[in-house]
Structure formats: C-alpha cells, structure tokens
Amino acid sequence: MTLEFKAWFQCINGCSGRYPLNEIIYRCPDCGELLEVVHDMDVLRQRSADEWRDLFDQRYRRHDWPYGSSVWGKKELVCPMLDNANIVSTYEGGTNLFWADRLGKQLGLKDLWVKQCGMAHTGSFKDLGMTVLVSMVKQMRAEGKNIRAVACASTGDTSAALAAYCAVADIPAIVFLPKNKVSLTQLIQPITHGVLTLSLDTDFDGCMKMVQEVCSQNDIYLANSMNSLRIEGQKTISFELYQQFDGEIPDFVIVPGGNLGNVSAIAKGFKMLYDLEIIKKLPRLVCAQAQNANPLFRSFQKGFKSFKSIRAKKTLASAIQIGSPVSIKKAIRALQEFDGIVGEASENELANAVGRANKTGLLCCPHTGVALAVLEKLVAGGVIQPKHKVVVISTANGLKFTDFLAKYHAGKLKDVQAECVFQPVELPADSQKVRATILEKLGV
Hints:
By secondary structure, the chain is α/β, with parallel strands linked by helices. It is built from 17 helices and 13 strands.
C-alpha cells in the first residue's frame, strides 16, 4: 500500500484555515498569528514505530539522494510533498554528539553531551531549516511563482545559511545584517557567496522589521524562522538525538534562545516522535538566554502570565541579542508542554563557561556558553542531578568567533573577569631555556 503523506500551514491559535506549503503566506489571515506546519498524523501512524525506526536507520548518512541528509532522511515527517528534483541539500545534519565526559565530571555529571550543530556546511544549525525553505522556493519557482529573491534578517548564521543554499540553487538572496554587530567571519560568509548584503544601522529587531516590510509584496520570499518551513528542518535535531542515543531520550535538553525558533523546533520534533509512539517519554526543555537579552526569562519569572518585548543590550552572544522574538508564543507553548525552564547568563558567566568547556577539548561559540552557564546554575541548584542524561545544543562553530576567544584570553572583554586565560610563551630558540620553561610550566 502506498501512503499519501500530507502537510499544510495552519494557525498556531487553531484557526480553521489550511494553506498549502507552496503558498506564500507567513501569518494567519484571520488573527494575524504565526503559522505552523501540520502533518496528517493519521497517515503517518499507518507505519509502526518499528517501521519508522528501520527506515530512518536505513537512510542515515547513506548516499541515496536525497535521503542521506539527516533532514531528508525523514522527508515524510518534514516536507513530504516536495519533488526530490527540487531539493537543495548540502548533506546537512548528522552532526557530532560529543560526550563531554571531562567537563561533566567537573560538574558532577556522568552523562553530559554536547550536540555540535556547528559542524555543518555553513557552521551552524541554521542549515537544517534552510535546506527545507530554499528547496520549497526552488519548487515554487519551478511551478511559475514570481519569486525574485529570498531575504532574511540575521545576526550572522541565518545569513550564511541562506547565502550558501541559494548559491547552490542559483536563486538570488538578500541578507539584512545589523551594522557592526556580527563577527567578521559571519559577515564574510554571505559576501563570499556573492549575495546582496545590506549592513543596516540598527539592531536585529530593526533588521527584522525591515525585511518583513520588503517581503510584504510576495515577490521576495521571507526566510526567517517566522516562516515555519524553517522549523520543520530544525526539528530534526530531535530526530538525530533519538537516533544517536539508540532510542534513549535525554532527561534535559538545553537550548540557547534568541528568536526562539530553535527551542520551538526541538520541542516539535520530540512531540512528533512521541505522538507516533517512536519514543515513550519527553525530555525537559531548558531555554538559555543572555542576561542582556532575556525577555523570555522575564516572562518565565512571572509564570508566563505576561510577556513584554525589551530593547536588547549588547551581548557577546550576538546571535541571540534579540528583544522581540518572533516565535515567542510557540516557545512558551513548547516550554509549558515540556515542563520547561528558562535560565539566564551574564556576560561574565557565559564567557567563563566557554573558557572552562574549551579547556576540556570543546570549541564553543558564546551562545553555547550561555547554555553551559545555565547548565552550571541548574546543577548547583540541584535541578539537574548526577543521574540525569543532559544534552547541550551547541548552535554554531567556535571558529566563527575567534575574535571573542582571542579577546577572552587577552583579558579584553568588557564585564568579564576571565578565569581560564592562556597565552603563548615567547622564548628564544634555545633548547635549554625551552626545556626549563616546559618543566616549570609542568610543575616539575
């Protein structure tokens, strides 16, 4: 029997309208809220949990196009109606699940893992969502829709992913970046792919407002996470964790949070596996925010009874320097369903969390530092205990933030008292002096 898998856009408030995934629409026409992708779960349940497990394992990291991609290996659960000929993929997903044994022991944990989403084509988890979105744009253009270009506002990683995937697909892209608020490495990524890069004298929230206005005429397609096609790709982080742990689900998953699309996506992925009876329990979700950009944390402190946008202050975790997150309602709903927690980290806490982690062999971005700092607080407070299996989502490659790392070790970061400083030792080319210095440093 051939199953006909289906998915569509629908309002997160439950309004009755359904809209095809190849329609250019971002908000509910009735109430103005965000949309989400809804799958026909009755059809998906016609395959047993064992059949889904076997299919995922047969495809995982193989070379049968496009199913070797860890996103497209779950195509039926992501974007089933897409023509394979229009899929734009860089073999994304399948990133390393790092057993942080040494760091875990320092914290008193036996089972600490870091999901290194930065080991991706463009160096961040954004590839997972962008493969779905750009593939759908390619399909819509093939169907005759007048989409001149794809655009996004970004603090760096989204622009890199959009630029790369559009370059692969030969689709024009436009990125809006806040001037002087992204690292040079992040700025150079869209430039080197030859896309139109606009550096605006505003913050991310200002860029986000601008890109929505530019995309309102529908001939330029919006690629930010308010477009729920992105969420469908990013939810496969949960699918990967399920596979990499051989079906065992962690007790806690800690996610850095800015625009809040990723914590929403990870929740959606686990919930889908649970509803299909592929997994038997849900993890607790933790969203980690920088103290200088913490509107969700402030809402959590009030029991999510209210939410107020803020003007985000400058933070070393620049990608999550967002005071008016688009996916706020999705994130709150997800955290409530997953017995979730929201934590915050100061600049000093996040930087030193990176310093301690990197000393154990990791290479963390500052956003991962926010998650690690919140982890440390939850362990200290007894919420996370030695018996728990914990996963920290590392969102980007540390090599994108070498300026941050260099300034940390030089003691030049504002509001940071660096605790794990290391500098090269300059010596003459004299073997006796070199040996004496080595022995001194080794404490011999």
